[in-house]
Amino acid sequence: MKIFLLALLLAVTISSIESLIWVGDFANFASWPIGNPYLTENREIVNDPKGSGQKVLKVKYPAGSYSSLPGNKGGTGFFVWPFGTNIIQHATLEFEVLFPADWDWVKGGKLPGLFGGRTSCSGGDMALDCFSTRFMFGPNGGGYAYLYVSKVANHSAEFCALTTAPNCSPDWGYGIGGSKYFDKDRWIKIKQLVKLNTPGRQDGRLTIWVDNVQKFDFAKMVYRTGTVPISGIAFETFFGGNTADWATPKTVYSYFRNFRIETF
Where is the Polysaccharide lyase domain (predicted)? Predict the structure, then answer.
């Protein structure tokens, strides 16, 4: 009971002091502070297919596409730098995603998350001067955070036990916080809280909510060994995986809306 009350108090405290710092409205997408775009031909601004009247981002994943396919043509990506010259050490990112009724989860794929340092903090990177906290969707609507954090840091035994990485030494990233996140044919709101660790300490935090229900919370995170701050959003979405069994068997589409970042 004491642990539950402490967790509830923390959640209330954080939510009460969050300060809105940036809102991503797709009606004004041209004004977003973005860079490093790729596969722009797979995205377009459309009306919300569920009839809200909002403008949303529609993303195409052509049949047979997955991330490690040579010349992959599936999904899309760009990076958002919303903080200007501010040095951000802790923030929340939330957004909504819609997977239509004909969506096939296959083995999974990437969704947006926060990042710090280099935009190339993925694909097996050692993450010595960067980090990323993208989400993933998985089979049957499963979801989790897919972390690139320093692979030479002194991670806690608790962290290692929670991740999908064998012996806490992944060839790729660290999957963590997995459970049922997604349904088809309705908007799902997902949110992550990232509090960066003090360099040399295991005092960072990762919290995940889905439709305002807390799914995961861990307070001994090590994101970095140096002073890399939170830089912005890694908006990346695609199927994969590094083998063909991750590929989407048919052309499918996803939709995104209501991006917002708060600090606390």
Answer: 52-259
Where do the structural domains in the chain lie, given as residue ranges?
Answer: 21-263
**Beta carbons within 8 Å of 262's beta carbon, 6+ residues apart:** 18, 19, 20, 21, 91, 92
- pLDDT tens profile 10-21: 444 444 468 999
Q: pLDDT tens digits, residue range 19-69?
A: 999 999 999 999 999 999 999 999 999 999 999 999 999 999 999 999 999
Contact residues for 4 (Cβ-Cβ < 8 A; gap 6+) = none
> What is the pLDDT at residue 99?
98
Whether 207 and 214 have beta carbons less than 8 Å apart is answered as: yes
**Predicted confidence band at 241 (pLDDT cuts at 50, 70, 90)?**
confident
- The CB-based long-range contact list for 168-171 (8 Å cut-off, 24+ gap) reads 171/124
Distance between CA atoms of residues 110 and 237, nearest Å: 5
| CATH 3.40.800.20 corresponds to the domain 21-263 | no
Dist CA 247 CA 243 (whole Å): 8
**Whole-number Cα distances in Å, 43 to 39, 57, 74, 81, 106:** 8, 7, 10, 19, 21
pTM for this model (two decimals): 0.92
**Tens-place pLDDT, residues 149-179:** 999 999 999 999 999 998 898 989 999 999 9
- Pair type for strands 232-239 and 76-80: antiparallel
Phi, psi (degrees; rounded to nearest 5) at 16: -80, -20
Residues 6+ apart with CB under 8 A from 124: 171, 172
Two tokens at 157? 């035994």
